[in-house]
Structure formats: C-alpha cells, structure tokens
Amino acid sequence: MVRYKMWTLCMIQRGDEVLLLDRQHDHFKGFIPPGGKVEFPESIAASAIREVREETGLLIHRLIYKGLYEYVNPTKNDRYMIFNYLATDFSGTLIEDSPEGKAMWVKIADVDKLPMQASIRRRFPLFFEEGTFEIQVEWNEQENCEGAVHIRHT
C-alpha cells in the first residue's frame, strides 16, 4: 500500500520581492515560502490560502498554480506531494511572531544569498517562469538522501 502525504507552498510576490519565512526550528531550517499540510477534507487550494493566513496574516485573493514537487520513496512506499502556488493579489498586515518563522520581504535577486533548503532553491526560479513544473525526487533510503531528480517544465 502506498502512503500519500500532501502539503502546499505559496510564493507571495510583491513587485521585485517575495515574502519568505526565516524558519529556525526542526530539521527544515532556512528561508522558505509559507505553506503546510493539507488537512482532510479541505481542498488543496483552500489549504494554501489557510496556511498563508496562519503563517503570515495575509489573505490571498488569487492563486496561480505553478507545479508539483514530490518525493517518492520506493522502499517505504511513500509519496509526499507538495502543491506549489504563486500569489500576487493579497491583502492584510503581516503578523509579528509567526511560529513558523519571521516573515520578511526579500528582493528576488538576493534570494540566492540566503540559507535555503535545496528543495526550495531548486524550484525557486520556476515560480517566475511561464507554465508549470513537475519535479520528482526519488529518496535514497539506504543513504538517507535525495537520489535521482526528474524536472519537467511546460
């Protein structure tokens, strides 16, 4: 039996800046866009909107679907799916103390200088290109690291 887990991630863009969270807890440290687990039975888009609101205080008015990022672990029969969105239409005021990390507007041109997980860095430029992407990463269970990476951009 295959186990599925689903998350969302939403890149929020304001002109030449994006909103990132400076996450400094658990094993997933670095600058990341807001996002999180899809709660059953909510829709995937509703999850993205909820996660942005909880983590930043902002309300998204329009989501643009950008692509799927997934990890597959053939040894454990796991498939982790992350649905990626871009938002440029939003309102609200940033919350000061998000449990996920301090929200900061960062120039897109400066993002490459920030500490960031490889999975976020790999897909970051694809948010600003036309079309959608699909990235599949095969997890190497024996070495506890990423194995083959397949990127499709349409």
TrEMBL record:
The keyword Transcription regulation does not apply. It holds the Pfam family NUDIX. Gene3D superfamilies: Nucleoside Triphosphate Pyrophosphohydrolase. Residues 3-129 form the Nudix hydrolase domain. InterPro entries: NUDIX_hydrolase-like_dom_sf (IPR015797), NUDIX_hydrolase_dom (IPR000086). Its cofactor is Mg(2+). The keyword Cytoplasm does not apply. Keywords: Hydrolase. PROSITE patterns: NUDIX. This is 8-oxo-dGTP diphosphatase. It comes from Lysinibacillus louembei.
